[in-house]
Amino acid sequence: MAERKLYLYTRFERFWHWAQGLLILTLLVTGFEIHGTYSLFGFEDAFTVHNFCAWTWFVLYAFIVFWIFTTGEWKHYVPTFVKMFEVIRYYSVGIFKGEPHPVPKSERVKHNPLQRITYLGLVSLLVPYQMLTGYLYYFYNQWPQMGWGWELQTVALLHTAGAFAFLVFVIVHVYMTTTGHTVGAHIKAMFTGYEVLEHDTPAHDSRP
């Protein structure tokens, strides 16, 4: 079967993908320890590492947003419902029957409709939400000076809910990386930058 290699992921894109993944996993592990779920590093060390990763993620996130808008990559995250149901059916049924993906990757279409909405929601909603609740938690001692009378427990629960949302995303995302033409195809692409397609499908056929 003919294969075609597409260079879809730049060095910076691959860097922030893995860096952000490592930060999220570290934040989850240390965050749940701070929450009292288990004892692994010790509360003080977990707290220190968690805060360091939180500020690092904030700086990285700023660079990511800047990069997305200045390079035109934002076009790959514009939501669309064209072929959305076909993609959902593919991951629900078609993939287990060996059917071809309804929206194969191309230089113009890096993400299918389901990925676009998921990643857009992640970047524009879940990440800012988690950072906001986390920094509110961090600056708890300054609340009285700012005239805020909120309950710390409420903010803690909101932040923990966001953590579980990220945990669900990570689990689903890791599973989805195994759905390429080989189990490790998508993971390899995020190291090399090249996505290998099974079918030599023209770019205009990849329109969502």
Q: Level of helix content?
A: 55-70%
- Measured by DSSP, the beta-strand proportion falls in under 5%
Class inferred from helices and paired strands: mainly alpha
Please summarize the sheet with the most strands. Answer: 2 strands, antiparallel
Strand order of the largest sheet: 1-2
Query: Could you give the order of the helices and strands?
Result: EHHHHHHHE
Query: C-alpha Rg, in Å?
Result: 20 Å
Can you walk through the features of this model?
The protein is elongated. 14% of the residues are buried. The C terminus is likely disordered. The longest helix is centred in the first third of the chain and has 29 residues. It is 60% helix and 4% strand. The chain has a two-stranded antiparallel ribbon with strand order 1-2. It is built from 7 helices and 2 strands. With 208 residues, the chain is mainly alpha-helical.
Brief summary:
The protein is mostly helical.
Secondary-structure blueprint:
Blueprint: E1 4-7, H1 11-34, H2 43-71, H3 84-92, H4 113-138, H5 143-146, H6 152-176, H7 185-192, E2 194-197
Antiparallel strand pairs: 1-2
Helix pairs in contact: 1-2, 1-6, 2-4, 4-6
Search tags:
208 residues, mainly alpha, two-stranded antiparallel ribbon, elongated, disordered C terminus
